Amino acid sequence: MSQPLKVIVGSKNPVKINAAKCIFSMYFPERDIDCQGVNAPSGVPDQPIGEEQTRIGAQNRVNYCKEHYQAHYYVAMEGGAEQFSYGAATFAYVVIDNAVNQVVGRSSNLPLPQILYNALLNGAELGDVMDKAFNTTNIKQQGGAIGLLTNNHATRESTYTQALTLAMAPFLHSALYCQTN
């Protein structure tokens, strides 16, 4: 039997680790998946505001993992929020790297109530804001804001899983993605 496919996730959050393991198990069903979470600094605030800050946080986590660990793939997810012209929303950036290519992906937006977004602008983290608003504990390691605001029809993990699934496309069809004309 072949050696396990080793995946390092730039977080110890079980939601992020499970999302990564899910997509690698789906794309590589013939392989055992060794998916481990590690503490990787994002280099951005605990609650990133804006798409750029959120993307950079995910890329910083992946780059840290590449520098400190040996694996087939490195994965990071970073949740952020932004005030768009149509309203406040939360989303995540995902980064997958196989030491040859680095692919950046992004989740869909979840509209945020303005009062919750305002709390983020005042320095709070979304998980803490949601725990307070819904009287939950450590929701960020469970269904997240997404689970609470959609009555669990979607969850933080399902959103990460979808974003990671889409970000895998360039690894699956690398010859096509390398073509420029």
TrEMBL record:
Annotated SUPFAM superfamilies = ITPase-like
Q: Which reaction does it catalyse?
A: XTP + H2O = XDP + phosphate + H(+); ITP + H2O = IDP + phosphate + H(+)
Q: How does it assemble?
A: Homodimer.
Query: What GO molecular functions are on record for this protein?
Result: ITPase activity; metal ion binding; nucleotide binding
The segment(s) forming the Non-canonical purine NTP phosphatase/PRRC1 domain are: 10-172
What keywords are annotated for this sequence in UniProt? Hydrolase, Magnesium, Manganese, Metal-binding, Nucleotide metabolism, Nucleotide-binding
The record's comment on protein family reads: Belongs to the YjjX NTPase family.
Q: Manganese: present as a keyword of the record?
A: yes
Q: Which InterPro entries match?
A: ITPase-like_fam, Non_canon_purine_NTPase, NTPase/PRRC1, YjjX_NTPase
Protein purpose: Phosphatase that hydrolyzes non-canonical purine nucleotides such as XTP and ITP to their respective diphosphate derivatives. Probably excludes non-canonical purines from DNA/RNA precursor pool, thus preventing their incorporation into DNA/RNA and avoiding chromosomal lesions.
Enzyme Commission (EC) number = 3.6.1.73
Q: Which cofactor does it need?
A: Mg(2+); Mn(2+)
- The keyword Coiled coil appears for this protein: no
Matches recorded under Pfam families = NTPase_I-T
Entry cofactor note text? Binds 1 divalent metal cation per subunit; can use either Mg(2+) or Mn(2+).
Q: What is this protein called?
A: Inosine/xanthosine triphosphatase
A Gene Ontology BP annotation from the UniProt entry: thiamine metabolic process
